[in-house]
Amino acid sequence: MAAQTYSGDMLQQQPEHRGHHASHGTVSLKASISAKPGTIRNVGVVKGDGELSYAKNSSSQAVAVQELISYIEDAVDITRLPNSAGPVVVADLGCASGSNTLKNIDIIVNRLKKRYLQSSCRQPDVSVYFNDLPSNDFNGLFQLVAEDTLTGYSSNTDAPAKYFPAGVPGSFYSRLFPESFVHVFFSSHCLHWLSKVPDAVMDRNSPAFNSNSCWIQDASEEVIAAYKDQSDKDLTDFLRCRAEELQSGGLLFLLFFARQTSHEILNNSLFGDFWRLLDLTLESLVSERILTEEQRSSFNIPTFARSMEEISEVIERFKSQFVVQKLEMLPIYHFADYFGRRCNNEEPKILAKKVLLMIRTTKEPLIEAHFGPALNKIFWERCTELLLSSDLVGKVYARVRKPEPLHQVLIALVRK
């Protein structure tokens, strides 16, 4: 799913100093700050359907949802069916642009229609709203919707539409819909993205200034605390908005990356290895004066995997508005399992490059928005070189062959 992401300091290329790299010859670059650090920008995932696109590199996310179909259907079964003559309203928050969102919506819509059939009630129309940031590839998404022949009314048939689709651009950390408008909210693998990088992490005068890492791996306690505070605020804002937009009896179904304990920071995981690779890439570019230390320390990734304790604390604040039907931490092997099945006979270096491609799908827009297109190209070429020349290839291969679980939290809330 697409990210609720930020710009950091937007960097523009202008002539200044020279750095050299074997793959690029001489590079002449200057980064000039032109945006307020940490502010939200319309940055999401890689668009289109090319080799780098999210649409072509999100199959593992699809596996995660397919394994939880029964959970989704059980949650839909407790949703109060509306008695009014209007449509049933379903919304996917952080839909991105691939086919995953259509598969997720099909699960929900088909279950709703089955309930109406079983109750012998008239089946109402279903309106489906696809939400993501304004920069999301809505054109690509709605081309997929149009190819679904069961969506919308056909000119040569009287068959009812499966659903009526619409797009809603905007951050899901703010209000998106009128009050008491939506019957079912769904969001998959999005809420680990924060609305912005914490202000303290970008402040050189703050003890939480994060100068040595692009994320929180191996970071100080102050950096981790700043991310946690931002995460707490964002989840609070998210639930407040959905409480206002959901009808009484409506469902809020959430699935996102989490961690088992408050002390676990994903350092010893497949993704932790790749976070370090991003740091090594930035350090390499600084050492060759392609980037300055200031430019390097201005880049931080706005993601945070909450613990069950942190999630529960926020949900508790909304106990007068929601009934908790499900709150469960689930181990997930699907990323490693997916690559293990798909690349069973691949050489270790080929396998590592494919995992990097999946990481790049969501991180490249951040790099390009922050450093500009020219540096973005250099960054990923250097990142690939460092990957293939390091012991990380062996680590990735071993983790895929004998995967350790990541964790995701599944939340089903019903509006009182």
Summarize this entry quickly.
With about 425 residues, this protein is of the alpha/beta class. It has helices at about 60-65, 70-75, 100-120, 140-145, 200, 220-245, 270-285, 295, 310-315, 335-340, 350-370, 375-390, 390-400; strands spanning about 10-20, 25-35, 90-95, 125-130, 165-170, 180-190, 245-260, 305, 320-330, 405-415. Helix 11 packs across helix 13 (about 390-400).
Q: Rounded to an integer, what's the Rg over CA atoms?
A: 22 Å
Mean pLDDT: 80
Shape: globular
Q: What is the H-and-E element order?
A: EEHHEHEHEEHHEHHEHEHHHHE
CATH topology: Rossmann fold
Q: In terms of per-residue confidence, which ranges show pLDDT below 50 for 5 or more consecutive residues?
A: 1-42, 44-48, 52-58
**Assigned CATH superfamily:** Vaccinia Virus protein VP39
What is the CATH class designation?
Answer: Alpha Beta
Number of helices: 13
Number of domains: 1
Look at the helices and sheets and give the structural class: alpha/beta
Helix content: 25-40%
